[in-house]
# Entry
Amino acid sequence: MERHKYTLDNGITLISIENPAVDLVSAKFFFRYGTQVETPEQAGLVHLVTAMITKGTEVHTAQEIAELIESRGAVLSAEASADYLVINTKTLTSDFASIFALTSEILRRPTFPESELELERYLTLQGIKAKQERPFSIAYDQMQTLLFGKHSYGLPLLGFPETVSQLTQAHLQTYHRQYLRPDHLVIALAGNLSPDRALTLVQEYLGDWHTPHPAPPSPQPPQPQPPTHLHIPKATQQAIVMVSYPAIPVTDANYSAMKLIATYLGSGLSSRLFVELREKQGLAYEVSAFYPTRQFTSQLSAYMGTAPQNIDRAKTGLEQECQRLAETALPPAELDLAKSKLLGQYALSKQTNSQLAQTYGWYECLGLSVDFDQHYQAQVQAVTPEQLQHTAQQCFQAPSIVIVSAN
# Structure
């Protein structure tokens, strides 16, 4: 499917993907950086911005915005990750111009009203409290701190009770003014909309949005942290064991090999961890591995939910399965199966207009070329057993380990 890329004078990047198969248009308004810009003292700020940005503008109240969206059967939401903040819309093609106009207003003129902020702050605090009751969430958040220290990658998305409680309307307004700016904006439109029409809409509603000066400082990569083992007491019947290693960013030449490692280890019921540790040894209630795509240093984490009496065997098993890839080249047949699984999952992740807009807008936010999609698939196919083993050797050194259990 052909993609068109445009850059406006004010720095906005537009990626247009025409797909007339269904009379819908999905739009993703990405702002670069996301929670990367948070400090420990303002943890949770970007999440609160996403919760509040659709709650009122200089023209419309939160109720009016909700009614406009629902009257057209449209979708409007916002979310944040480490590397971006995104506002999502989806609607019929016939309604897209009006929804685009409303979304542009939300981007440029949000008010973050105090009455709405009080409620969203309360809901966030409740969300933090709920996470503290889930052993996996406890292990994950603590692992981020071990791997990334005081860098924003090490902060929980929702923040801490003490930081969220002191975030004010002024904090949200300052963040919006500094970071939600046209030269940070990537718009990805996918659906029954021509590239010319897409460009016309962006120029009409956002072309006169002036880039503020000066630009805020760019986020810096996290500093390496020493491997650490941590046990967190928690009254729970199921223990969580998480073994994590710092891993390469998306821009590294071995990124595709790292994705294959994560797929081989932890993707699905045929994965190495599932077969060896759950099916053969009966250690795991659940077991998997994940490798988030990040602009800066990422992580390869393998984790298991297990009975408390199996903690030591679980930890040893997770480490050994990772280390095995560093010590022994993966047989070509097993590597080919991992490639088929990874590329199949990748193809399925680009079936809808929303998925297409997400994929290509995200790539652009990460500073990758518009052709990264094709390059990535070719690179996956080209990975050799030797390249995968070399990548594993670079990654699987001394791990950090977090255990959450009752004893």
Remarks:
- The longest helix spans residues 114-131.
- Residues 3-206 form a domain with the Cytochrome Bc1 Complex; Chain A, domain 1 fold (CATH 3.30.830.10).
